[in-house]
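hey all, quick one before standup. I had two proteins in the batch that finished overnight and I want to keep them in one place so we stop losing track of which output belongs to which input. First protein below, input sequence then structure tokens straight from the run.
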Amino acid sequence: MIDPTLLVIEDARDHALLVRVAARRALPGLDVRVAGDGREAIAYLSGTPPFRDRRSHPLPDLIVLDLLMPDVDGFAVLEWVREQKGAIRCPIVVLTSSVHSDHESKSLELGAVSFHIKPADIDSLGETVREIVGRWIESRSSGELPAAG
């Protein structure tokens, strides 16, 4: 069986690194890819150069998405995925520092399956990522279907 792939879309390098480490600890063998902004994420997901070769750049089994990014933000990524009409068939979980009350509902409306505010401390962030990976990758691998939310 091929190891599952997680795509982390995060512009803050330190947060991306922490998510990567926590996800790999949660699920050894997990292939974690990072897109540094929304534009790179769309290029990765659409398979445009330099991401054309799907053996080297597989489609993800899960996307963890930050909302607050310059230029192409997380909402634009969610809208782009929605426009693909099912071509991107993995769950998208929002993990953001945004505390705006309407961002959760807008994210879920645009197709995210879950919304989490980034915890301020490293240990809590790691636990949140472990929960996300456990819920959305491990349960899919075992054939269970997690409930959205």
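OK second protein, same deal, sequence then tokens:
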Amino acid sequence: MKFLPPPLLAILCGFMAWGLSSSVPTLIFEAPSQSAFTAGFAVLGLVIDVLAIIAFWQAKTTLSPFHPENARALVTGGIYQYSRNPMYLGLLCYLIAWTYHLAHPFAAFGPVAFVMLMNTGQIKREEAALLAHFGDDYREYLGRVRRWI
């Protein structure tokens, strides 16, 4: 079964957050340091994604989330020692920034939907493929590093 590319799924969840927040505009809130918080999470997402991509390039392995079986190396160093899915964590940070920018409680459903869809669809499929490909090394990594953070 094919899944949406994770960045496209994040964009769709962002649109969902915007749509939900637009449905009841009276619930919009203003928070102190809203712009700083939004910018901080967006920058955090960018830093996490860049570190994750650099780790993959250094290992000379595939970035494709649709063909994890083509991986030439199991990347466990750098940011991957803290999260098994830092690229997805970076996307989640962008969604959290967007949610805070929208300043509406219903917008929080966007990041929640993203995590649920990624866990049940993309990540479980990737984990099964990597387990079949790397065996005990990946099993040990699963036990040592959390899925998100």
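Flagging for whoever picks this up: The mean pLDDT is 93. DSSP finds five helices and no strands in the chain.
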